[in-house]
Batch of 2 targets.
Target 1
Amino acid sequence: MKPSALSCTVALIFTAMIGQSAATAGNEPIQPITSAKVTNPALVELGKKLYFDPRLSKSGFISCNSCHNLSMGGTDNIKTSIGHHWQEGPINAPTVLNSSLNLAQFWDGRAADLQAQAGGPIANPGEMGFSHTLAVGMLQTIPGYVAEFKKAFGSDQIDIDKVTKAIAAFEETLVTPNSRFDQWLKGNKRAISKDELAGYQLFKKTGCIACHNGPAVGGNSFQKMGQVEAYKASSPAEGRFAVTGKEADRFNFKVPTLRNVEMTYPYFHDGAANTLTEAVDTMARIQLGKRFTPEENAKVVAFLKTLTGDQPAFRLPILPPSSDSTPRPTPFDRK
Amino acid sequence: MKPSALSCTVALIFTAMIGQSAATAGNEPIQPITSAKVTNPALVELGKKLYFDPRLSKSGFISCNSCHNLSMGGTDNIKTSIGHHWQEGPINAPTVLNSSLNLAQFWDGRAADLQAQAGGPIANPGEMGFSHTLAVGMLQTIPGYVAEFKKAFGSDQIDIDKVTKAIAAFEETLVTPNSRFDQWLKGNKRAISKDELAGYQLFKKTGCIACHNGPAVGGNSFQKMGQVEAYKASSPAEGRFAVTGKEADRFNFKVPTLRNVEMTYPYFHDGAANTLTEAVDTMARIQLGKRFTPEENAKVVAFLKTLTGDQPAFRLPILPPSSDSTPRPTPFDRK
């Protein structure tokens, strides 16, 4: 038994599933993405504005959308992100798309959910460089925001809990249903090509599915980066160890979703793999001890590209203007 | 006769107009904004994607929309913009909204039109820090873009002329009709309040209208910053002098549009005025040798806020993903 299978208890279950020949959505280890249900539209609209608002950063230049760009698969497509004063981030920005399906947030899972995550970058000196107190104080001076908070929460008193709740509510809508693979899962056998299907079969047979499964094709477990062969990361990140302090968790990272993976390059927590070809090759080698032929690799990559779903479709939000009493951003203040 | 009137030949014409008491759109010195007519929708869609695409910068982080943010009145709401590697820009980013109505582009008018402007920031080392050759080469490796250029231009050969033409075509759609003031101009006398109308009368009577007139309420002449009283700029910019080399053009800047001015703070080419109150006070003093009472100032500001029109309404564009051969951005490369 391979080390990867030993560490993934779920792998055994899926191995059993893979044995079935006539695939239907019901017994596949990947399930279709379902559309988001919006229960409080005012909250989602407010969250959308906050998500796009660079005034939540010290500089007035960096918004959530700067590094989790919804025009680009919910990422920045940069190896590691750019923070306040052009600081080089320590890790690759994970996609916000379908992030509501993750078991926890950040690569090391240090935030339990989207709301807990949303406050992080705002106050991180290496990211947006602001503070929760300053962000809330700023928002409270903007009449347009005060009115929207009142509409969403029934009160015009703003606090960081409401800010992050609104951002999380918007982020929960950022699911990407209707990929070609989901159409196939739902019974449209012509939605994917013969090669793409062959790639999916390889993806299951080789064992990728052991960790990349479920509706998000990942996001539901922590796994060691380098199960079979050590991974030489270009990032200092220690993964789950930083949260639990347990040696066994060193270099354990949240398995990323493979939904929209065609758009979320570069890959891995250190952004070291520029292409899907490279990422598939490395993963097979260091996680599963396998080597794909170029033809096999191409088929797996073709399958992965069928996971691109409907991207978020909404009007660019128009932000309420600052008032005379709104503190102005200080982008060039080094303190 | 005041120096401002001497230098603005148009002023005399408008002074005559101001004498009329029953204002109608026909004889007002400000005309309503008309909606944009799109003749080549494929070109506009392509231009919209390019406008939002940070891959046109060396870092992969800065797009046209970074400094001319369409969520924020087509500006960045920062005193002077942030460029590649967090460089501090020399001048305040003018709004892209209604910029097709300007007599020329940039504060000093060094670009004749939007197409000529669009190439500037891409190749400016202090802004997007890229080059036209690199930008075109990058686009040519992206199949989604190649297809869109073919659709818009009938050829899949990309060049910088086509890139800037597409961006300009999108920018031409960024007009903001239907402001409350335009509704008033068109005959809806209840569209603006008594105080707002009084502010407009003051705006004309005091002479602001001499330079801020036409559909864009500005943008149609160069004028000296500090006609009556010298202006102590916090920016080294020399204005039109940098283009013509004529001493008479020193500190002559393009008169900015006042459309959506409520959203385009801070004000002036050096971004020194944080509020409309401050901007109106300074302008009256240094351009016209007048001092508004606080009540007068408030009325003029109230009028200016009626110039906010319908903001651009479109879906956030989804950018075509890079291919394996697309050169990756190099944000932390200092060369």
Target 2
Amino acid sequence: MLFEPEKLYKKEIAKFEKKYSKLITNKKPKSLYEPCNHIIKSSGKRLRPFLVMLSALAVNGKISSVINAAIAVELLHNFTLVHDDIMDNADKRRGRVTLHVKYNTNVAILAGDNLIALAYKSLLKDCKHSTNDVVNDFTQGIVEVCEGQSLDTDFEIRKKVTKEEYVTMIQKKTASLLETCCSIGARLGGGNKQEISALRKYGNYLGLAFQIQDDILDIMAKEKELGKKIGGDLIEGKKTYLLLSALHKAKGKDKELLKKVIANKGIKSNQVDSYRKLFIKLGVIEDASKQVNNYTKLALKQLKSIKNEQAKISLEWLANYLTNRKK
Amino acid sequence: MLFEPEKLYKKEIAKFEKKYSKLITNKKPKSLYEPCNHIIKSSGKRLRPFLVMLSALAVNGKISSVINAAIAVELLHNFTLVHDDIMDNADKRRGRVTLHVKYNTNVAILAGDNLIALAYKSLLKDCKHSTNDVVNDFTQGIVEVCEGQSLDTDFEIRKKVTKEEYVTMIQKKTASLLETCCSIGARLGGGNKQEISALRKYGNYLGLAFQIQDDILDIMAKEKELGKKIGGDLIEGKKTYLLLSALHKAKGKDKELLKKVIANKGIKSNQVDSYRKLFIKLGVIEDASKQVNNYTKLALKQLKSIKNEQAKISLEWLANYLTNRKK
């Protein structure tokens, strides 16, 4: 029978959800653990946990031996969302009201802090060996996420940002955590240096492709599929890969129009359509899609030496799935 | 020559400061590391680092082998201060302007998050063995601090809080981190189960004594010595050990006066004097001092089996020093 990666994904994530949803039961004080649970009960693609599992499998480790590590990266990811949402003043996340809106900022700060600690607790449960390296990689992931978030905030104020600087930022803010997932999965699965390094690079390139695809979807997706307003990044005046490319390519009147996005700190909802057309005219969407494909190819290239066939197929499937996603 | 613990303290903390002050040099982005450095450059008693050192020495480990762990606990302590100051809306800390006031709340949230990660990074440097246990204890410290902070916030809203509940809160919010210092110092120093357990208890009792002494100093110290306004807890309407004891003991008119502190969410500066007199009249200061002495005695009792004489003398000195401090 043909191996179907999507079936593996559904099966393993179902197991994951069962354990993850029971992580906090009857813990006190309620004022701390109820908000933490609100976050844990939010749905998600569980991309990061699946990466941990597949990276362990890739080096012929057992998926069952890294479930707690998979929970750890999801907790860590959620900590970043909770604190980012405070900083970004975001009201909603994945269709649910954000923590600092549902409760208050203090509760959200504290719940985020506690999620970090719960993440480490969970991670340690799966550390039967290589503990120092695994915890170090995990911690480096946090450092880079903080650095990336700080750069992102810097870019908001700065007038000029290059595409290269943008890539450095998303490498830290998004790609580093995917890299962490792969490296700790591979380490806990018993991988050797070469395997860990290859999977780590896979995670990094996957993260870059993922984030630029995110930027594209923000303006090119259908509102129904995306589940949120189209053009949000432009409305908020975010310096995404698309806007930076467009500024680089445009001349004359077009350039003036694009500069307005930054000068006015965003555009109005009814202007999104015309900017989308401008992006298409300038070939910016095409360029960005090429970038996504390039990074995806680089990610796939790292999988050459992967021994475990099921993991290899699944990691390939995952990369292609993320590149072609509509939401 | 007689061994002088204060000399050991000064000598070892001087070494600590040298390394600690250089922790972050030329790291980017500046927007993240400058605020982190602002915190690192703040002075402090360095009580927690010294506890790590003495606990290692107590089991005949080398102080030099736990310097990074000592840095880790100071970073962790400072993370709690940065996030607590946001939650408490505090403008100043140790005479310096707080991070969210100097920069803004977003910067302070992110710097705090990064301090946690830097703390783990530093801790791992000293983990040549027992890594899982050490990192687990460290993480448990964070969990308890979060739980304690959450309880503290709960108490602000609740009308009635018992003295027992208050002790549970300070056990988590203050004592647990001192316990962590002792346990990781003892573990890294190569201590056995009994030694780790004894030192852990020492840290816990020391923390309880320390916090209640803090409550006493807040109203009984001299402003010049304390370096901040006297009666701050009462002005803010904080349910300290003193206020809870007083409410328990008082009757009639006195009780009505005390209830006003809670009903009005604090008192005015010019009322501090009369409340101090009331506390003294009710014997509340005496009771609290007895409690401090009890906890200090319990802390000292744990040191009976400590092998290393210098560590023993220093841990005794530290407990007595903290109990008798004027600031």
